[in-house]
Amino acid sequence: MPKAKRTATVFVCTECGSEFTKWQGRCNSCGAWNTLKEFNPGHDVTGSGRKSSLGYSGTEDSVVQLGDVKDVVGIRTSTNFAEFDRVLGGGLVKGSVILLAGDPGAGKSTLLLQIAAALCHQEKTLYVSGEESLQQIANRARRLRLDAEQILLASLTSVEQIAELVVKENPGIVVVDSIQVMHTDDLDNMPGSVTQVRESATRLTHLAKQTQTAVIFVGHVTKEGNLAGPKVLEHIIDCFIMLDSPAGSRFRTLRSVKNRFGAVNELGVFAMTDQGLREVKNPSAIFLERSEESGPGSVVTVLWEGTRPLLVEIQALVDEVQSGYPRRVAVGLDSQRLSMQLAIMHRHCGITLNDQDVFANVTGGVRTNETATDLATIMAVYSSFRSRPSPRELVVFGELGLTGEIRPVPNGQERLREAQKHGFTQAIIPFANQPKKPIKGIETYPVKTLGDALETLTQLPISN
Ligand code: TYD
Ligand code: MG
After folding, report:
1. How far is the CA of 398 from the centre of ligand 2 (A)?
2. How far apart are CA 411 and CA 438, in angstroms?
3. CA 141–ligand 2 middle distance (angstroms)
4. What is the mean pLDDT, run by run of 10 residues, along the chain of 464 residues?
5. Could you tell me whether strands 308-320 and 239-244 are parallel, antiparallel, or unpaired per DSSP bridges?
6. Which of 183, 304, 330, 373 could, after both became Cys, cross-link 335 (CB 3.0–4.6 A)?
């Protein structure tokens, strides 16, 4: 393939992907030494509009009326996995590019093979693997008893070869497993370097738009939780989905971090079984599996995940300081918010934990940064501190303000209904979330301040 004429040269850090107009010894962004490499972005496939050697043209009319632009977002293909569709915002959009990222071993290849098998009967589906041999993929499909005979498989790592194949076969869906092993012949950088990953993703994205093929990239997350070339892919792709695999858990949560065609923070839940990934239709029931005698320090709350409620248990442990200074550790919750909640409890309720270590955790490996968890977290802390369990049938939600007030949260009614559906009969909630009509089966205790809330908790009889 002839090299494109150089237009402008930039220097790109192979560690973090930052761009500079001049070479320098050290990257100003990430501080790495000797990582800047010369890079020529002026290549036709990336969108300058000339006819490319890949056999399609990048040309689009420069000006059109908005009304004349086809609505492709309205045309969605279901992946046949409701949890995956939900996270995408209702299914795959033609010509869209999705990045599915997660730890090695999370189950990305398994999930995409299952999806490809479900889709291949309605759309031509191409699975390109640069990591596993065709034999390995076929074996996995057979072991999972997938009806996957019609999937087109290719073992490739060259972007140019993939593009040729896509133009020739014209599939509706292409899986690229993984983007980190892809490379373009036009760059001398090693496959896996940030520059290669970014350029490969850019070219394949352009190909997706031109051919109206939905492309799903697999991306591995490094130990530090970064995608190789942190952030470099985020602005290229349309949807960024994370497959989380909490240590030791067979559950996998799928969450959209970015979505140009739907809401972010939608949550899908799967379980890894010996038959591959299975959808979990009622995640509240899973995350709430509590032992019979849950002692002090456990409070159940209702999260709002995208478009649905999710019941989770928040646990806290308060114990005398073990080393010089008091520790505040939050797992699955925001540590800074925990410190803030403790300060509010001290200032407005006179309860000081200065000589105590405080740990808080959301069970089941769930992670949330919803402020609606404030009240449940501080109540779990209070329950542990006072060594007094909270009632088993109680749920709590509400945001805590710096002045000690309990602020309302969105979707209060739906949260209450979800709690009632799962057998909860009492709820401490923000005053402003009090339903106009009582919800049958659940008694609500609306509170205005943290002081009110803690007093209400103390007065509720403990049934367990
Ligand atoms: P894989 O899809 O290869 O992960 P990734 O592509 O994200 O690196 O999944 C690998 C893990 O999943 C591996 O530890 C084995 C486990 N697994 C099952 O438990 N059951 C199954 O049916 C399959 C296919 C994999
Ligand atoms: Mg894999």
Report:
1. 40
2. 15
3. 13
4. 53 75 83 74 40 43 78 80 92 93 92 96 95 95 94 95 94 94 87 86 93 93 57 85 84 89 85 92 78 82 88 95 91 95 97 96 87 97 96 96 97 94 95 94 97 95 71
5. unpaired
6. 330
Whole-angstrom CA distances from 333 to 9, 179, 313, 368, 371 are 44, 31, 12, 6, 10
Give me the residues near ligand 2 (ion), CB cutoff below 5 Å.
Answer: 109
Structure tokens at 319: 């114990």
Is the C-beta atom of 140 inside 6 A of ligand 1?
A: yes
Q: What pTM was computed for the model?
A: 0.76
CA distance 94 to 387: 56
Helix, strand or coil, per DSSP, at residue 195: helix
SS3 95: coil
Atom of ligand 1 nearest to the CA of 111: 2
What is the pLDDT at residue 408? Answer: 97
In whole angstroms, what is the distance from residue 142 CA to residue 151 CA? 12
Q: Which ligand is nearest to the CA of 243?
A: 1
**Angle, CA 434 vertex, CA 428 and CA 439 arms, to 5°:** 85
